[in-house]
Amino acid sequence: MPVPQNALTVDRSLLRDDVYRRVRDAIVDGTFEPGEQLKDGELAEWLGVSRTPVREALLRLAASGLVVAVPGRSTAVSTIDPEAVRDARDVIAAMHALAVRETTGRLSDDDVTRMRDANRRFATALTAGDVAAALDADDELHGVPVTAVGNRALETVLEQFGPLVRRAELLRFTGDARESVQRHEQLIELLAAGDSQGAESVTFDIWHSLPADEADGTAQAQGTE
């Protein structure tokens, strides 16, 4: 897919992060497809910035596995590597489980309410077949304990590897995730009840239910029929 032609205004005070997030999101949502070459000049023109922050963003994206950069040659969006996705998924699962364990009993009523609201929006989006809205609601739900724990190292790990998992999930998302609504509700109830061990276990299972490759996805589909 060609680079979008609409120029975007970037907040200069947060230039590096803004450029990184915009390119990252375009990769995750499929605007830039696996295998597509990314030219820093075209990206810079699209974003309305110089090439320097674009090159820095591509280096960060290479570190997270979303692009493959060959020094002195081209940079391309990485293909889906099942092993890399599984590795990232395991790390993401562990980080979210840690956040839940550390915040059980510490979440406010407002925190729990936000999680419930997010799960309702998640369910509504699934029914409507709105993949983007479903994943946004899912991010918001799981983000509540992450924000509450206030562990910057944990947030950094999720920021680095989360998009790799999310892209794989988005590319294979079928809307057949009704079971996730019940798992989310179970997690919320366990957090509200102060059951740290139970909440941690459910969180780990939620993230490990994500298919890392076509084989995983097929097995899960057969198991839920």
From TrEMBL:
InterPro entries named among the record's database cross-references: GntR_C, TF_FadR/GntR_C, Tscrpt_reg_HTH_GntR, WH-like_DNA-bd_sf, WH_DNA-bd_sf
Coiled-coil annotated spans: none
Domain HTH gntR-type: 13-80
MF term (GO), any: DNA-binding transcription factor activity
PROSITE patterns: HTH_GNTR
This protein's UniProt keywords: DNA-binding, Transcription, Transcription regulation
Top-rank taxon: Bacteria
SMART domains reported in the protein's UniProt record: FCD, HTH_GNTR
SUPFAM superfamilies the UniProt entry points to: GntR ligand-binding domain-like (SSF48008), Winged helix' DNA-binding domain (SSF46785)
This protein's name: DNA-binding transcriptional regulator, GntR family
Native organism: Microbacterium pygmaeum
